[in-house]
Specification:
Layout: H1 19-24, H2 27-45, H3 52-59, H4 63-77, H5 85-100, H6 106-129, H7 135-154, E1 159-160, H8 164-171, E2 173-175, E3 178-179, H9 180-198, H10 200-210, H11 212-217, H12 222-248, E4 250-251, H13 259-269, H14 281-300, H15 305-334
Antiparallel strand pairs: 1-4, 2-3
Helix pairs in contact: 2-14, 4-9, 4-10, 4-12, 4-13, 4-14, 5-6, 5-7, 5-12, 6-7, 6-12, 8-12, 9-10, 13-14, 13-15
Length: about 325
């Protein structure tokens, strides 16, 4: 059917989907099903997978990256991105290792890790919000800057000898096989889900991601919100640096190398739109579990790390490209 001007009218649904229908068609439900399938596949791939301690070890594959991914999700929903998170982790870990040489104890090391993360986040935020520079360009530059400082300080050396109580932050268990990091993972997931989905600040993040100009004219202080998001991303990178350094028991300049790829993949796989304006923390949680199960399963099968990197890269491209292809196909059919 066509109008008098020869153009096809746009189909507008007369009602929204019911809540059960929305859940049934949700990306999060699909991710949950994928996680179950991967879990079952891993049980068939290795007889050691179902060991409780092996399952507990599997969580270390995603918890520290997920800490950063929670904050990164909000940043991407707002229309920005931070590719320097792995560099921040390296610099924060180097600063803690350097302080350790002067006898600084666990509370001081934790404070230094958090402070360096916040400082790096503030540096990125100022360049983006005050100078108006594109976040992708800024954070590519600071990614090299932060890690380069670590290489200058350490060279091919490493900082070792962290205190025993500091190691608990990365290797400690709260109850049986429930690690301290896993408790933090669920705690941060609850906090960020509350911030994003149940607060006025979260609604401002969605509004900015959908249309920053309209958000500005609606009275939202766009630059201030984005600055807070860069600070949160830096802070979570500092927390990830503390847990990772405590778990490894040493600091090298190559620590967390290329983690930014896995963190962004985790966020996008979780259903967060790379263009901003859409996404959920539940999706990021499920995506983190899926990636953790896949990488741990591949590890049990002795698959080389480079193959895992290829898988993560292909996954990132696929998650971004497939929805676009589906829209193009639907548009072609509707035309």
């Amino acid at each position: 059917m066509s109008t008098a001007h020869g153009t096809r009218p746009r189909h507008v649904p007369d009602r929204l989907q019911s809540r059960p229908a929305r859940i049934l068609h949700s990306w999060e439900l699909l991710l949950g099903a994928i996680a179950i399938l991967i879990f079952l596949a891993n049980t068939q791939a290795s007889p050691y997978f179902l060991d409780p301690w092996n399952l507990s070890d599997a969580t270390f594959n995603f918890t520290e990256k997920a800490f950063v991914a929670f904050a990164m999700a909000l940043l991407i929903i707002s229309g920005e991105i931070d590719l320097s998170v792995a560099g921040i982790i390296a610099l924060a870990s180097t600063a803690m290792g350097w302080a350790l040489q002067f006898g600084v104890g666990t509370p001081g090391l934790v404070a230094i890790g958090l402070a360096v993360g916040l400082a790096c986040g503030a540096f990125n935020g100022i360049l983006v919000t005050r100078l108006g520079l594109p976040s992708i360009v800024v954070t590519i530059g600071t990614m090299s800057l932060f890690r380069g400082i670590s290489y200058i300080v350490l060279g091919d050396q490493a900082f070792n000898g962290y205190p025993t109580d500091f190691a608990f932050l990365g290797r400690g268990y709260v109850v049986w096989v429930i690690s301290f990091e896993l408790v933090l993972f669920f705690l941060f997931a609850a906090i960020y889900a509350t911030i994003l989905h149940f607060t006025n600040f979260g609604r401002q993040v969605y509004a900015i991601g959908n249309n920053p100009t309209a958000a500005t004219f609606s009275g939202i202080r766009v630059a201030r919100v984005k600055m807070i998001l860069f600070l949160l991303t830096g802070l979570m990178s500092g927390i990830a640096a503390i847990c990772l350094t405590a778990r490894l028991g040493s600091t090298r300049p190559s620590i967390a190398f290329a983690w930014e790829l896995e963190i962004v993949t985790m966020v996008v796989l979780g259903g967060v739109s790379i263009l901003g304006g859409a996404g959920s923390i539940l999706g990021v949680v499920l995506a983190a579990i899926v990636i953790g199960l896949v990488t741990f399963g591949l590890g049990l099968l002795n698959v080389p790390g480079i193959v895992m990197s290829i898988f993560v890269g292909a996954l990132l491209i696929g998650v971004i490209a497939i929805p676009r292809l589906i829209r193009l196909i639907r548009t072609g059919k509707a035309a």
